[in-house]
Amino acid sequence: MAKILFVMTAADHWTLADGTKHPTGFWAEEVVVPYRALTAAGHQVVVATPGGVVPTVDATSVSPAANGGQDGADQIQNALAAMTELQDPVKLDEVSVDDYAAVYVPGGHGPMEDLAVDAVTGRLLALALGSGKPLALVCHGLAALLAVGDSEGPGPFDGYRLTGFTNAEETQGGLASSAPWLLQDRLVTIGADFQEGEPWAPHLVVDRNLITGQNPASSAPVAAEILKALP
Q1: Of the residues 8, 139, 158, 165, which has the fewest C-beta atoms closer than 10 A?
Q2: Alpha-carbon torsion angle 213, 214, 217, 222, nearest 10
Q3: 36-86, pLDDT tens digit by residue?
Q4: Domain containing 98 — which CATH number?
């Protein structure tokens, strides 16, 4: 059995360009699907957030509209309720990468608010990348990569092929025009080779030990790739 670290946002909003706070958090599918796959294979999941704050689920992600109807919404809410790890996260600044076999960062717009600018997150992801262990991120979870390194010279993800939530998806989702910045644009500025797939379709990119998925639908292939990469 391996221990897998889920690095999750502690934010319950995303500050838009005009200063308003858009309610958000983590995206349910991006947590539930990998959690189910990893625990079904016998692995242990540990949740960590900045400050050990209990993470907030994005209400839209547990709605009938996002889950194919009320039955799907009930199922994903029940799955979250059964995840006791979400109610007792560890503090991110007390985490050692050495204790885990892989690191995973789910999305939702929450990481755009906190993980993208969190130095502790940045150091942890840099260590995970350098360790050779699987480092997996999906959708807006890729915002956490922006906290790695500094403005002097190329960062550790310079030249890596990766994917994440695209400008097209942000536009179709209705938030691009009010966003303070767009994830795809920012990932390009840190030197990443951004690989864009079709909007909303599963899209997985693997480069060395970095595993990335474009959107919520990519959660299952990302989880499968983590399992393949575990020792």
Answers
A1: 158
A2: 0
A3: 999 999 999 999 999 999 999 999 999 999 999 999 999 999 999 999 999
A4: 3.40.50.880
